[in-house]
Design a protein that fits this description.
By secondary structure, this protein is of the alpha+beta class. It is built from 4 helices and 10 strands.
C-alpha cells in the first residue's frame, strides 16, 4: 500500500467518525414536531331582560319668519319654556341638553319653481326623565308648548353595563355546557380553556343599551280627546355571545 492510499484510508475513517458524531447534533437541532392538541370549539349565548329605569325625549321647535332675528327669538322662547318645564321633572341640570340653534333660508317648491318663504330657525332639546312614573305627566305638559316635533323617545337602564356583564357570564356558562355535551357524545373529557372571546350582539342598533321608540311625530294638532298621553314600556334585552376553545383530554 503506497503512502497516498494509506492517507486516503485514514481520511475516510475520520469523515465516518465525524458523520456519526454529527447525527445526534442534527437530531437535537431539529426536534420532532409537537403533537397538535385536540380541541373543541363552541359558541355560548346568554341574555338578560329588564325594564328601563329612565327615558330621554328629544323635541324640536322650528319657526319661519320674514326676518331671521324674529325666527331666532321665537325658537328661544319655546326652548326656555321646555327647559322650565323640564326643571320640574328632572334631577340635575345635565338631564337637559340643548343643541346649537340653526338658521337657514326656507323655500317651497311648487310647479317646478322655488319660492322663498322666509328665514327658518330651529333647535332641539333632549330631556332625561329618571322617574318613569312622571313620564306621562311630562309628555302631557310638553304637548301644551309650541314644540313642532317629538323626534324620538329612548329608554335605557342605569345599570346597563352590569346587566351586559351578566349576559356575558351566562354566555360563558352556556358555552361550557355545550362543550361538555359534545365531549360526552364523543367519549372524551373537556380540558383546559385554550381561547375565549366575548362578543356583544344587538337585536337592532344599540338595542341592548337602549330601546328607541320611532316617534318623529309632527305636532300639527295636539288634541287627544282628554284621554291623556299613554306610554307602554318595553323590556330591554341585553345579549352576549361567547366563543370558547377547550382542550380535549
Amino acid at each position: 500500500m503506497n503512502v497516498f492510499s494509506s492517507t486516503f484510508s485514514r481520511l475516510k475513517m475520520k469523515l465516518a467518525v465525524l458523520y456519526l458524531l454529527a447525527i445526534p447534533l442534527l437530531t437535537a437541532c431539529n426536534p420532532p414536531a409537537a403533537v397538535e392538541k385536540k380541541q373543541v370549539k363552541v359558541l355560548g349565548h346568554g341574555s338578560v331582560t329588564s325594564y328601563p329605569d329612565y327615558a330621554e325625549i328629544s323635541v324640536e321647535s322650528s319657526f319661519t319668519k320674514d326676518r331671521m332675528k324674529d325666527a331666532v327669538k321665537e325658537v328661544l322662547v319655546v326652548t326656555n319654556e321646555v327647559m322650565a318645564l323640564a326643571k320640574k321633572f328632572t334631577n340635575a341640570p345635565e338631564d337637559v341638553r340643548v343643541s346649537s340653534i340653526s338658521a337657514n333660508k326656507d323655500y317651497e317648491y311648487a310647479n317646478g319653481k322655488q319660492k322663498f318663504l322666509g328665514y327658518n330657525s330651529a333647535q332641539s332639546i333632549t330631556v332625561k326623565i329618571s322617574d318613569l312614573k312622571k313620564l306621562e305627566a311630562f309628555m302631557e305638559e310638553l304637548l301644551t308648548l309650541r314644540i313642532n316635533r317629538i323626534q324620538n323617545i329612548s329608554y335605557s337602564h342605569t345599570k346597563a353595563d352590569s346587566l351586559r356583564r351578566e349576559a356575558s357570564a351566562l354566555a360563558l356558562a352556556d358555552a361550557t355546557k355545550a362543550a361538555d355535551q359534545l365531549c360526552q357524545a364523543s367519549n372524551a373529557k373537556r380540558g383546559a380553556v385554550l381561547e375565549v372571546a366575548n362578543y356583544r350582539t344587538l337585536e337592532t342598533e344599540d338595542r341592548e343599551v337602549y330601546a328607541q321608540q320611532e316617534v318623529n311625530m309632527g305636532l300639527y294638532g295636539k288634541g287627544f280627546g282628554g284621554e291623556g298621553f299613554k306610554i307602554t314600556l318595553e323590556l330591554l334585552r341585553f345579549k352576549g355571545t361567547c366563543h370558547v376553545v377547550f382542550e380535549i383530554e
